[in-house]
Specification:
binds S-adenosylmethionine, Rossmann fold, alpha/beta, 18% strand, globular
């Protein structure tokens, strides 16, 4: 497909981002442009549109179409026990300390369709902490949040998830957590009894509670430095003293303004503790 020349394209994307903010309140100005350009081009191609002008027409006259666009821009790819060593690290380095607390609050920021949420809940359950833990699972995207709490996932992924669960130090028969029903599985709803799922936009919303553990993985990679700094400050405000910030392998606090207050508990899985 032939797009407007690249300079115009980039300029027009800036205008589009501003218009989206005005009309729908979503602020993508701090998203990494490489990813935004790639996603918009892919979306144009999927929808058989030839220009940003055509895209504008649909976006601003059809909120359902905008929902589809949001799915594309926000990248919802996820897995259960994704990067198992991350969960093993939480199990070995973080949960034993949290187990000394009378109650625990966890924020799963950018939880997507719930695979990470259920992985965390299983981990907490196996370490005997789920009953006194409240998990707040948030995402910008309301559509994924609707799915997140259902705990219904495709059965095709179960062999891979089972292997990841054991690599993460899983202690039980993984299949004991879910029931299968034609092509899909449903995880035990008791796992999310103490879970609150609701929309929160890391680009624009404020701190809403104080947490002992914040998990945010594969989200900040889509943001530019300025927005990343905003989010790190937001997490800093939202963590109790000696709380844990768990970013996973793809993100790092290394260059962040708040880094001098944090100590790496696990350098490779980027698990930090707020020590100052
Ligand atoms: C690639 S998924 C990562 C899901 C999960 N954390 C994982 O690692 O498997 C990125 C998630 O971040 C969410 N997201 C993107 N921008 C966001 C924002 N500004 N505020 C909150 N969530 C956002 C997306 O909707 C998506 O569900």
């Amino acid at each position: 497909m032939k797009l407007e020349n690249e300079a115009h394209f980039e300029q027009d994307v800036e205008t589009l981002i501003e218009e989206i903010k005005q009309q729908y309140g979503y602020d993508f100005s701090g998203y990494s442009r490489a990813s935004v350009y790639r996603r918009i081009k892919r979306f144009l191609s999927q929808k058989h549109l030839n220009s940003l002008e055509q895209l504008r027409g649909h976006l601003f006259s059809d909120s359902f179409f905008f929902e589809n666009f949001l799915q594309e821009i926000t990248v919802n790819v996820t897995e259960m026990f994704r990067d198992p060593s991350f969960f093993l690290s939480l199990r070995q380095n973080v949960l034993p300390i949290l187990s000394t607390y009378p109650f625990i609050k966890v924020w799963d920021a950018g939880c997507s369709t719930g695979e990470e949420l259920f992985s965390l809940a299983i981990l907490l359950q196996e370490e005997g902490l789920l009953g006194r833990t409240k998990i707040y699972a948030t995402d910008i995207n309301q559509k994924v949040l609707k799915q997140a709490k259902t705990g219904i996932f495709s059965a095709t992924n179960m062999p891979a998830y089972t292997a990841a669960y054991y690599a993460a130090g899983g202690k039980k028969e993984f299949a004991s957590y879910y029931t299968s029903n034609y092509g899909s599985v449903k995880f035990d709803s008791a796992l999310v009894k103490n879970v609150v799922v609701y929309p929160h936009n890391l680009a624009t919303d404020s701190s809403f509670n104080e947490f002992h553990l914040i998990v945010c993985r594969n989200v900040l990679i889509y943001f530019n430095r300025v927005l990343q700094e905003r989010v790190y400050s937001l997490f800093d405000e939202s963590l109790v003293s000696l709380g844990y910030l768990a970013l996973g392998k793809k993100e790092t606090l290394a260059m962040a303004g708040i880094s001098n207050r944090y100590t790496a508990v696990d350098k490779s899985n980027r698990v930090y503790r707020k020590t100052n």
